[in-house]
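anyone else get weird line breaks when pasting these?? whatever heres mine. first is seq + tokens for prot A
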Amino acid sequence: MAGLVAARPLNLRPRTGPHNSPTTIGGFRHGQTPLSGRPRPLSAPVRRWLPPQRQNPPGSGAGKGLFFVQNVLFDLDRHDIRPDQVPVIYSKAFYLMENPSARAVTQGHCDERGTEAYNEALGDRRAKAARNFLVDHGVDGSGQSSVSYGKDFPLDPGHDEGAWLRNRRAQFVLW
């Protein structure tokens, strides 16, 4: 068959030399798996991503205001969590872990470009990506749900790149 390339066997033997340092073990960075090279999902210690003023005692409800204000933003036609948005979603995960009775609906939104059906499906993927990120990092998934609004409820009614950026979001609502 044309176009198929034989896969190289994986070399899982530890490397020697400058690759073995306190930050790398066997040529892999700390937190990476040898097969994928991707970081392993982090468990509950999300406190290191939060600014000091957000580290409130459990049950205080002090982080509830920021829970509504901060949205997770996405790139055009993408539904994966951007690296610069990880601290935002970690703060939401931290709040939900510290307040186990709180339940959240993750809403997926898109900008005005694209068809109705495409934006509905993309909003659904964005909402599920944000919800799955929370669940993968220690939030109880039984009370979390997701919904897509497509381009129906824009946060910014403008028609420029700045408005479109603010409208491509996952928004969290407590209930």
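and prot B, same format (seq, then tokens)
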Amino acid sequence: MCLKYIRNLGASMVLFASTVASMAVAEQIELKAALPTPPGTSRNVIADLFADEVARRSEGDITVKVFPSGQLYDDTGVPQALASGSLDMAFPNLAHLSRFEPNADILSLPMMIGTDADVVYALFDGEIGEDILARLETKLRSKALSGVFAPGPAVDYTRDKHITKFSDLEGLNLRVPGSPVMQAVAKAMGLIPVAMSSNDMIISLAQGRLDGLVTTVQGGNSLKLWEAGVKYMWMDGSDWTAYLPLISNTVWDELSEEQQTLITEAWAAVLPEAREVMAQDLAVSREALEANGVTISSPTAEDIEAKRASLLEEQPAIVEEAGMDADLIDRALTALDDIRVGAE
């Protein structure tokens, strides 16, 4: 009798331990995050920092598994995947979200000419950023973690023409990314924007069929544009690129309030370092370009003010054509003016 009781008790304890272990396993949460870039690039480094912080704060109960190099989705496929719930998380380029929320392309507008990273961050850390993130959350059915990180502005690379003033850009045929706002601003600058794949772009540059292209400082370095004949870079602080973390509501809504707070606070803790990673990457890439013979030029403060004032006359038409919210953009322009005055 006693032996039977002990056996039953032992079996019950094994069953209980097994049940507890199963519950612990069930509580493990894994977020699959898609990145188009390879390991070691700045966006991936930042995603890894975030993953480490989430794992540390949750003591391993929540993990973020990063899938690099477009293993899951590239930037163009991310928005639909997040909205449908087929992807848990991503760190997309804001400009690639403009097909779903046109105002996401705000950093490409003429009012951004001559802008530095501190101004971009001040704009997005305030009411304007909150408004845009709220719109993205609705359109993409996702949670946007507050705080963007930016690799820097787009720059103009040229093969043969040394750009020293804005008027030097007129008539040049440059490969420009497909954003409608970037295309419109390029035309307003006097450029002839060309749509072309990355592979064709390099060949066309090397063969002299393109005068140049528009990309970031880091992009020019990673592509080793000097090997394709690029000799000059014009940096006017316009057409900023920025990334932000998005988590699909399919996952987010299943998390407890405590888990949501943990993830939000983890990103807030990582954000300053993420921005520093971007700043360092920009500096290193610029040094590499100069070391490989690329001459870098920038407009004077007076030239920037004059060009921005001129292009602001074109901005309302660009905003309307892109389907952006004119009131939001007007508020953003006022906010930018206040930020710039405060920085003086």
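btw re prot B: The radius of gyration is 24 Å. The chain has 13 helices and eleven strands.
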